[in-house]
Amino acid sequence: MWAFAGNVSCGYAASEEKAAYGTRVKYRPGQKIEFLDFTVVYVGERRKTVPVYPRPFIYYDFKVRKGKAEKMVSWTSGTGLIGPMDFEIGGKHYQLELRHSDKLGKLNDDELVIWQAKPPS
User: Fold this and answer.
1) For residues 69 and 92, is the Cβ–Cβ distance under 8 A?
2) Which pTM does this prediction carry?
């Protein structure tokens, strides 16, 4: 006969926790990710061609919502420069990183990092 005393975790608590700024967060289409100040949902990717560049740019679209305020944040590596995408919601500024984080290094294809940021000067 076995007996067990103590807390048992079924692994569900993590899904109820809010994602932390400055950490790797996995995303997938349609999944809502809750941060302290807002929620973000990955909508999908789209291709856009521009006349001056031979190959199309791939944009990764995220819907960001705080209360009734909602906006689309689109990240692209564009011509190959991989950097954060600045955005503002609810009067606060943030940066979204895909593919590479200035502080955390290479990101997997299904990972993003969001940082709280200072307003642009």
Assistant:
1) no
2) 0.80
